[in-house]
Amino acid sequence: MDFTKLLSLFLAYKYPIIFLTTIVEGPIIMTMSGLLVRLDLAGFWPIYFVLMAGDLVGDTVWYLVGYHFAHPLASKFGKFFGLTHEKIDKTKAIFQNHPKKILFLSKITMGFGLPLAALVVAGMSKISFKRYIASLFFGQIFFTGILISVGYFFGNLYEKINKDFQIISTFAFLVVVILTISGIRSYLKNRNILKN
Fold this sequence. Notes:
Blueprint: H1 3-12, H2 14-24, H3 26-38, H4 44-81, H5 85-95, H6 99-108, H7 117-124, H8 129-160, H9 166-190
Helix pairs in contact: 2-3, 2-4, 3-4, 3-8, 4-7, 4-8, 5-7, 6-8
């Protein structure tokens, strides 16, 4: 399938595609969605709500994993996700004292490396799903808006550069976003805001 057909397919089904990919990789998709809004390839409000829904569905999956499967999965596969029993126990101890704060913080810093353990431990702790999703929802409002804005304002630069350099600049932009997220994660770890 050539690029033109692929682009046409994406534009025809952009919202379902964005929804599904956000479940897997929210921060990058949110940032790139801001560029789509800037280029008039998507409407702001539809994409905003699709991104929020996709990311919250992803969070729901992690809650269910914690609720039903956390200990067996941590034993078998936790090392691949940085999800060890030690991290789960530490997070659980902190979590029981401040569940709303931790869930809100986990949402607004998810792209910056706050351990996934917080979402899984919420399920393990059997907190009410309604309370869980409500705590994440308010953080999601800010998180989604900020990342769309980053992509949107990058789009302003994107429109001004020569067409030949647009692919290179998009790749460079993604690298900068990834490096920024890694840098913030390292900074937060060094300040002991995030646990190793």
